[in-house]
Structure formats: structure tokens, C-alpha cells
Specification:
Layout (H helix, E strand, L loop, with lengths): L6 H14 L1 H27 L5 H4 L7 H9 L2 H36 L7 H29 L1 H10 L8 H12 L6 H17 L13 H9 L7 E5 L3 E7 L6 E7 L3 H26 L6 H14 L3 H19 L7 E2 L12 E5 L4 E2 L5 H22 L1 E3 L7 E5 L5 E5 L5 E3 L2 H15 L3 H11 L12 H14 L5 H10 L1 H10 L8 H18 L5 H4 L1 H11 L2 H19 L1
Parallel strand pairs: 4-9
Antiparallel strand pairs: 1-2, 2-3, 3-5, 6-8, 7-10, 8-9
Length: 574
């Protein structure tokens, strides 16, 4: 029989191991202690909050970064698992990219001699590179899909930036807009039934007992409001869209139903994102003269992303945009812009019901229609940014449709108002002045006045040394490149030293609301470039900026500005 070692023998053996390998023993002991303590902290937190749902701690009706932090600060195990899942999914993709497109080409270039290069080998290498790019793009799309809504949205943003990524990757990421895996229809119908029941009871879902509905009860509640069980037509990152016909009014409607457990998934990713921003700010404050802005910048994005989870807020945004845009762009039967009508009686925090619009995505419209609607799209963007005070910050291909007005002319339809930025009057006026000064080439005023009023530079900063650097960036990096993506990318690379100087030497920062504005502007430009390769957003902004300046400035100021803008416009078109 085997003898069982005594506790004293085990202690002596353990002590011997510690003496022989002190560093390894200390590391192991620290790891075990950290893991054990983390599990205890999360267990204790879950015990204290076992009777409360996440929605009672993190309010859904408004963004509260402190509530998100307080909920996730004491869940280290869940945070660690999420970080490991991100590394597990994206780590191999990043590693393969670095090896295949950075390390391997450098090694091959070093080994081969330029004089002995075989043209046939170059062709083989190009074909091999293209196949590797296709495989890597598919792996990236699969990784983003697995990681969930937040990462799917990141991929969707990149999917219409031909100036940032290659056509192969672009094509693969565009599938994220149309091929997000759906969740079970039965779960969606249960959510819909719960929300419909809550509207009848006049209370939120959490305050009534509709969470345990069986399948028959779900069908009864749903078909009491709609002629039949709604049919799935699209699956998106945050929810699914169903088509149905209302029982009373016989109107066709689009029903957007939120994914289950979306609040927990999104807030965890936002918490990690803001933690990253805090860490970057600390590093920048130590190693650069840059003002800490990353946390505030990402907090602006997090605010917009979180409010996408509140469909009541989205419905309010949609109604506001419908009223403002219809009054500005439409007259009689001729309509330039359409926003669907919200059916408020069915809308809750997790369900949004609105008018059904027939159409196709703008990016899939005929070339002639795209060119016809691009000027309207630019005016639509500038009107929001400079005039009405709210800005649609998520105009990806699935949110910009082409439909027809009553007289048969193509009409731009704007959808999905979950991500909206508020732009106050001071910022709108400052941006109007900045755009006008940019278009007429008045870089001195743009840098010394507009950049300070918009919050990019401190008000008391002497910009004498900074002016030549920013002039180079604005002139060579943006305006002179125009619509040519390759020229713009090449120009920005050529002035990379100037860009680094601005970000590392001077106290340059980015205002928080620009997180959404720049996203919206970039996405709109990407869509326009897909339909019209010659599109230049600066030149396309000229007509509306001119009209806005006429409303804002005095006659004398406007005359001087108009002359400068017209002279520059004529120079660029020659």
C-alpha cells in the first residue's frame, strides 16, 4: 500500500521548492492569490446584487459613466475573460498580418537581390499576397462577428473607408452590414410581447410580471396588435428588424427589436474602452506635452454608443429629424429627404416601430442616382452640423436608402437615429466660420481663432510657431489632395513628421463631440466615394457653406468672404 505523506512532509517539500526556485514560487503564489481574490470579489458583488438586474444599476434612459464603472469595477473575472476573448480572437489575426505583410516581405526583400529578381516570381508573390489578404479578411470578419455588437460596429465603420483599407478587406467587412448572425425569432417575439404588454400596463418591463410568458401567450399578445407574426427582414449589430402590418390601421411597419443581454455586453466593452483612454492619457501626460483628451474623446463616443440602446431616445431623435428635415428639404409632392414616421404607441426602450419604407441602400443604387443624390447628402450633413443642432452620426450604407417621392423622383431616406450628437449654437457658429475660412484658404484665422473656439487649442496659447505646421497639414494633407484617395494618403504620409509634431509637441486636443462628428463625416465621404470616385467633400461643401455664411455674417463680412471663397473655388476648378 502507498503511504500518504504527512502534512509535515508536504510542508518540507514545499519549502524546499521555494528555496530552490524562489522567483517561480513567488510568481505562482501571487497568481493564485490574485485569481482567488478576484473570484472572491466578483462572488461577493454578485451576492450583494443578486436581487437586482443590471438595468436597476445602470440606467438605460441616460448615459452614466460612473454607474457603468461602479458595476464593472468589482467584476475582475468577467473583465479578464472578456480581455482574453478579445486577445484570443484578434491576436492570431494581428499576428498573421504582422508576419505575412510586414515581417515576411521585409525578410524576402533583404534576402533577394534586385538584379536577380524573376518577373514570374513577382507575379506568383502578388497572387499569393492577394489570396493571403482574402483569407485574413475572412478571419477578421469572423473574429469581429464572434466578439459581438461593439466590434461589429467598428468593422461596419471601416467597411466604407476605401482610403484606409484595401478593396479586399473592404468587401469582406461590408458583409458585416448585411450578414450579422440573427438571434432566435422566438426570443425576439417574446421581447416584443413583453414590451407590448408593458405599454398596456403603463409601466416598464422590469416592473411587471411579463418575463415568463409562454409561446401561446406571446403569439396572442403579438397578433392582437399585428395581423400576423412579424417576419424577419434584417439582422443588425444591436437588434433585428421585422416587417408587419398593424391590425387597426392596416399600415406596414418596421419593428426593430433589441438583442437580449445587449446592455451587459455593450457596457462591458465601453468600460474597457474608457479604461484604455485613461491609460493613454496618463502615458501622454508623462511623455508628451499633449493635453489629456483621449478619455473625454472616447467618453463622447461611449455616450453615443450607449444611447443607441435606448429606443425611446432614438424614437425622439427620429421624430425631431423628421420635423426639421422635412420642413427644410421637402415641398408638396416633391421630396428630397424622407424620415420614417414613428408609431409611438408601440415603442419602448427595447422595441421601436416606425413606418415601412421601400427602397435600396444608396451604395447599391445606379451610378446616375448616386451622383444625383450625393449633393443632397452633403447638404443634409451640413444642415445637421451647422443648422439644426443635432447630427446623425451613423450614416453607414444600411442607414442611407434611396426611395421615391410621390412624383417619382429619387429621394434620400435617412434611417437609424440611435447615434446622434448634439451640437450647441456656439459650436455650430464656430464650425461655420472654420469651414468658411478653410474653403477660402484663410489659415491664419482658422488656426489663431477657430481652432481655439472649437477647443482644439487652449485660448491663451501663442500659435506663432504652430501656424506653419498646421498650414502644411491643412493645405497639403487635405485640400490639395482633393478627392484622390491615393494622393491624400501619400500626402498625409509625406507630412507625417508635421502630424507627429502637432500631437507630441503642442497641447493639441480633440473636442469630445468630434468623436461622433468625425465618424459621421468619414462614413458619409466613404459612401460618396464609392458612388463617385471624383467626389471632393470640400468642394461639395461650397454651396451650402456659402448660404450658411450669408445667414450668419453681416453683408460686408459676407461680401469679403464670398469673394475669397469664389476665387478659391474658381482656382480649384480650373
Amino acid at each position: 500500500m502507498m503511504s500518504i505523506p504527512s502534512s509535515r512532509a508536504i510542508a518540507r517539500s514545499t519549502l524546499g521548492i521555494v528555496r530552490r526556485r524562489p522567483f517561480s514560487s513567488l510568481t505562482a503564489a501571487s497568481t493564485i492569490t490574485a485569481v482567488g481574490y478576484s473570484n472572491y470579489v466578483e462572488w461577493r458583488t454578485n451576492q450583494h446584487q443578486s436581487a437586482s438586474s443590471i438595468e436597476t444599476i445602470i440606467p438605460r434612459d441616460h448615459y452614466d459613466g460612473d454607474s457603468i464603472a461602479s458595476y464593472w469595477d468589482h467584476r475582475p473575472v468577467t473583465i479578464a475573460k472578456r480581455l482574453l476573448s478579445i486577445v484570443y480572437e484578434l491576436g492570431p489575426v494581428a499576428g498573421e498580418y504582422f508576419y505575412s505583410f510586414q515581417l515576411r516581405p521585409w525578410a524576402m526583400k533583404t534576402i533577394r537581390s534586385a538584379d536577380n529578381e524573376d518577373n514570374k516570381q513577382i507575379v506568383v508573390d502578388l497572387e499569393h499576397k492577394r489570396q493571403m489578404e482574402i483569407d485574413l479578411s475572412q478571419k477578421l470578419r469572423a473574429a469581429l462577428t464572434t466578439l459581438g455588437p461593439t466590434f461589429i460596429k467598428v468593422g461596419q465603420q471601416l467597411s466604407i473607408r476605401p482610403d484606409l483599407i484595401s478593396p479586399t478587406v473592404l468587401f469582406e467587412l461590408q458583409r458585416l452590414c448585411d450578414a450579422v448572425p440573427p438571434f432566435d425569432d422566438k426570443i425576439a417575439m417574446k421581447v416584443l410581447a413583453q414590451e407590448l404588454a408593458s405599454t398596456r400596463a403603463g409601466s416598464d418591463t422590469d416592473d411587471n410580471n411579463n418575463t415568463n410568458l409562454n409561446e401561446d401567450e406571446v403569439n396572442r399578445i403579438v397578433t392582437s396588435e399585428f395581423e400576423e407574426v412579424p417576419r424577419l427582414v434584417a439582422s443588425a449589430s444591436l437588434g433585428q428588424v421585422y416587417k408587419a402590418t398593424t391590425k387597426k390601421s392596416k399600415q406596414q411597419v418596421a419593428i426593430k427589436i433589441q438583442r437580449p443581454d445587449i446592455l451587459e455586453t455593450v457596457t462591458l466593452d465601453l468600460f474597457l474602452l474608457l479604461s484604455y483612454g485613461k491609460a493613454v492619457d496618463k502615458l501622454c501626460s508623462v511623455f508628451t506635452n499633449q493635453m489629456p483628451y483621449h478619455e473625454a474623446f472616447l467618453n463622447g463616443f461611449a455616450h453615443g454608443a450607449f444611447m443607441e440602446l435606448n429606443y425611446r431616445a432614438e424614437a425622439a431623435n427620429q421624430t425631431y429629424f423628421r420635423e426639421e428635415l422635412h420642413s427644410r428639404f421637402n415641398s408638396g409632392k416633391k421630396k428630397k429627404v424622407v424620415v420614417p414616421l414613428v408609431h409611438e404607441q408601440f415603442t419602448t426602450n427595447r422595441v421601436l416601430v416606425s413606418e415601412w419604407i421601400e427602397g435600396i441602400p444608396l451604395a447599391q443604387a445606379p451610378q446616375k442616382q448616386i451622383q444625383q443624390l450625393i449633393p443632397i447628402g452633403v447638404e443634409l450633413f451640413l444642415c445637421q452640423l451647422l443648422d439644426i443642432g443635432k447630427f446623425h452620426s451613423d450614416p453607414h450604407p444600411g442607414n442611407l436608402y434611396v426611395t421615391k417621392s410621390e412624383d417619382g423622383t429619387p429621394t434620400l431616406c435617412l434611417l437609424d437615429f440611435g447615434l446622434v450628437a448634439d451640437v450647441d449654437e456656439t459650436a455650430r457658429n464656430a464650425m461655420t466660420r472654420a469651414i468658411v475660412n478653410l474653403l477660402q484658404g484663410d489659415y491664419d484665422t482658422l488656426i489663431s481663432h477657430d481652432a481655439k473656439h472649437l477647443g482644439f487649442l487652449p485660448h491663451d496659447m501663442d500659435v506663432t510657431e504652430l501656424k506653419p505646421v498646421l498650414k502644411t497639414i491643412l493645405k497639403e494633407g487635405l485640400l490639395e489632395a482633393g478627392s484622390n484617395l491615393h494622393d491624400r494618403k501619400r500626402n498625409l504620409m509625406a507630412i507625417s513628421n508635421e502630424l507627429n509634431e502637432v500631437f507630441f509637441t503642442y497641447p493639441f486636443s480633440v473636442p469630445p463631440f468630434f468623436a461622433l462628428v468625425t465618424r459621421g463625416l468619414g462614413l458619409l465621404e466613404g459612401i460618396a466615394l464609392k458612388g463617385d470616385p471624383s467626389f471632393d467633400i470640400f468642394r461639395a461643401s461650397f454651396p451650402y457653406a456659402k448660404r450658411r455664411a450669408m445667414d450668419m455674417f453681416s453683408v460686408k463680412d459676407y461680401t469679403n468672404i464670398s469673394r475669397g471663397m469664389l476665387a478659391r473655388h474658381r482656382t480649384e476648378t480650373m
